[in-house]
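Notes, p. 3: input format for complexes.
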Amino acid sequence: MNHTRREFMATMVGAFGAAAIIMATPSRARACMYGTWIVRCPKGHDDEVTEGTCQHVCEKCGTQVFSGNVVTVVCTKGHANRVDTGDRMTSWKCSNCGTECRRDSEQKSRRDPPDRGRPLG
Ligand SMILES: [Zn+2]
Ligand SMILES: [Zn+2]
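Output follows (121 residues plus zinc ion):
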């Protein structure tokens, strides 16, 4: 009597199983951040990264800044935040002062170059 029901359940399980595999395959844990950030290497050097990056080697000492998914970003006020970027991090609020640690969003609004290139006289 509950033959069809059992079949239905089996179909559901099969569908879910397939979906789980599809979801799991492409998202291999990769630490990535997008935008402009100041990252701090384990030895205390600050580096600027300007593009999406999943790996960054300190320009001063050659140390890998990422430790797995974890990287230290520095907010505009100099607070170091140890964060897990996960798949893609596009925003991070400083845990000390709440400032957005991503730099380029700020630059866009603030950079207003004085437009006067006129020679004197
Ligand atoms: Zn370094
Ligand atoms: Zn801060």
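The chain has two helices and four strands.
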